[in-house]
Design a protein that fits this description.
Number of strands: 7
Oligomer: single chain
Structural class: mainly alpha
Number of domains: 3
Shape: elongated
CATH topology of the largest domain: Cyclin A, domain 1
Order of helices and strands: EEEEEHHHHHHHHEEHHHHHH
Helix content: 40-55%
CATH architecture of the largest domain: Orthogonal Bundle
Length: 314
Amino acid sequence: KVDLNLRLYCKDCKDPVPNIVENFAAGDLICGNCGLVLGNRIIDTRSEWRTFSNSDEGNDDPSRVGGVTNPLLDPKLESTNISRRDGGSGTSRQLNRTLNKVIDVKSEKMLVAVFKEIQSMADRIGLNKVVADTAKQLYKKAEEKRAEGERSLKSKKQEYIIATCIFIACKQCRVPRTFKEICNLTKVPKREIGRCYNLLKKILYVQGPNEKTKIDDISINEIVTADSGNDKIESFIGRFGTQLNLPPNIQKYAKTIAINAANDGTLGGKSTTTLVAAALYFATHMHSDQKSSKEVAEVCGCTESTMKTAYKQL
């Protein structure tokens, strides 16, 4: 058999079991037997650790320094920064100009700004990191398609794409959010999100939490009405009930009403938000803590007349 292993050994000692020492402080590669320097200016690939204390007598644990890498961004942009202070020699300007040719700094910095905006929106409505990262990944894919010359995306405003990516990410990660919540968060009209969704579903390929699924397999009506079972109802009851300052016993009663109505088809054809609103309104009237129909409908994101109709059917 041919030995394909690559071995580093000292050309003077030629020891079959070499003793090569990596001196990262000096940046040298040294033979431990004879002291011959085999290489210089080696790069330290270890993690950077420092002890931020006045003295080492306390044996304080070292801390990792350096920023966390973002897999969604170009690592070249994160690791390369050139100072503009060069004493007026113009060297830094030339270096920055060369760097800009290597990396598309403008687009990458714009991507960083969008990612911060998506993260800020996700934090405002309590979306976890998985949903936020999914929305960022969807937006990055859309921008890559735009850069490749996708004409249909060039006419869409940035905020429309951001809102749609957040909406799709919520669906893919099974984190229920109503259409009204996304519209209020992003200030984008419902119609524009629907149009942008129909556009993105043709060009993006989305991965769910457990399996790969195309956006085309999910209809816009399914996402809008958010009818996906009892877990969706429980989530809506918990969030809307908390916003209405309802005690746990009323929320539990409303959840039972909504789940039973969904299972026996009492409110067939109604959206989950309407079903939840009617159940909450029903539960508050069965207890002392009553809420007005306008207040419940506003929190749940449905019209007052639709909620009252569903309430009468219950």
